[in-house]
């Protein structure tokens, strides 16, 4: 626990500074996490005997991050082409030739550890001071902390065999904490229809964070690992810390951009 | 060969009619192909022992096709959320729990046999009469026919162990045929800088068609199959016929929309 707190006290100020500075500062800080997380993902996958096209995925993930920063309106089209490139790159592998799993896990790596988190760049760029990104992170933190302490004290019912330590009580309380933070944030930021949009935002972030967490647990469980890595003392690997942010990134971005800011591009 | 010609003489008028009518007619005709192709893909994948989330992928692929028709500007964001849904849906599978491969092949199925071909809907919608889609198809047909006959007559050098019948000579001549058709089409349609844009378009379509073809061969080879199915007499399965169109769809759409029509959304 003390290693955990020590690591957090170094990392949290760095994260807050990157959010505050925004722009390329934030994108570069995120790029470090994306690269480390993707390397961990491919380590997990290689333990199953698959041979994904790791270097190409890393290069394409960094390219997608740069595109999210420079030309966000091109990011989705760029992913389509990047995903196609990943598939066809495996055609040129000999001895032994690539398999369906090599191709599928390469695409999953690009999507899950590269493309999904890249939406944090667009989320940061939505406002000048990073309040929207900070609110998203605050919801995730509230959900994690709420689920951890409440689950420890009152958790009885196991949530899923994938992640034996999680309880239904913890998940419910974590999501409630995320909703309360979402509600407070929506009121402070003066979102239109704030009681409704705040609750929905907190719910979406809480649930997508939990699902991201469980997705990584499923992957680790499949290869019989406890932690994805041991990079941060007391916290396991990067993916063990960053998994909650992965699905949340596009969900929070599209909800705020389309619904809260009213920029749903309908004709 | 005669079953092949008979099937073609029924299918080609249907394809031409769907292209001519456009709109929902085209989207529905494509939806039939997408569903059949995706079922074949998942049959291939199940032969490797993986258990992808087939019904969800089919439902999401049809939804993505409908979104390409109704709100094309939302299609890319919808794919991000659909891909996320596919991943998290596997969290709820018990006995035995889902594996990384189940998740990765589900995502590959959604991407390769659902999302990539859905760009044909946007390609058809670019002009009123379907000339741009017809030109794309004409390039693929020229490439296929050119590679087949020239490869048969002069092919000596094997192209790749993935697909033993393909030769370097066939691939070069097929791509040349695609470039010639692209050049003619660009001249007829009066594309700006037509000699350049026509050659690049023909090259992109020829190469992406060949790569789509080889990608499907890689998958079949991985499970020891000759044809992906036996739906069309003399033509193998749907994927055996449709594989050339899969990567070509987004490549042709983005090239025409961004470069030829000059709608690259840069600030």
From TrEMBL, chains A, B:
Enzyme Commission no: 2.7.7.41
This protein's UniProt keywords: Lipid biosynthesis, Lipid metabolism, Membrane, Nucleotidyltransferase, Phospholipid biosynthesis, Phospholipid metabolism, Transferase, Transmembrane, Transmembrane helix
Single biological process term from Gene Ontology: phosphatidylglycerol biosynthetic process
Keyword presence, Transit peptide: no
Top-level lineage group: Bacteria
UniProt keyword Transcription, yes or no: no
Protein name: phosphatidate cytidylyltransferase
Organism: Gloeobacter violaceus (strain ATCC 29082 / PCC 7421)
């Amino acid at each position: 626990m003390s290693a955990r707190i020590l690591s957090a006290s170094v990392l949290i100020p760095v994260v807050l500074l990157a959010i505050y500075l925004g722009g390329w500062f934030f994108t570069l800080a995120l790029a470090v996490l994306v690269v480390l997380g993707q390397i961990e993902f491919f380590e997990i996958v290689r333990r199953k005997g698959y041979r994904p096209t790791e270097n190409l995925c890393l290069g394409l993930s960094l390219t997608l991050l740069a595109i999210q920063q420079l030309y966000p309106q091109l990011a989705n089209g760029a992913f389509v082409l990047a995903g196609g490139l990943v598939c066809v790159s495996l055609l040129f592998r000999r001895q032994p030739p690539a398999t369906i799993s090599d191709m599928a896990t390469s695409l999953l790596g690009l999507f899950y550890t590269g493309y999904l988190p890249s939406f944090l760049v667009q989320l940061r760029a939505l406002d000048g001071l990073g309040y929207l990104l900070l609110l998203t992170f605050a919801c995730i933190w509230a959900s994690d902390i709420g689920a951890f302490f409440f689950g420890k004290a009152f958790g009885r019912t196991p949530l899923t065999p994938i992640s034996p330590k999680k309880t239904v009580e913890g998940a419910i309380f974590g999501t409630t904490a995320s909703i309360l933070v979402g509600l407070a944030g929506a009121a402070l930021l003066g979102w239109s229809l704030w009681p409704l949009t705040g609750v929905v935002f907190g719910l979406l972030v809480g649930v997508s964070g939990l699902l991201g967490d469980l997705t990584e647990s499923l992957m680790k469980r499949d290869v019989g690992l406890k932690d994805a890595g041991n990079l941060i003392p007391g916290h396991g690997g990067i993916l063990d810390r960053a998994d909650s942010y992965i699905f949340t990134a596009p969900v929070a971005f599209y909800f705020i951009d389309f619904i809260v800011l009213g920029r749903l591009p309908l004709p």
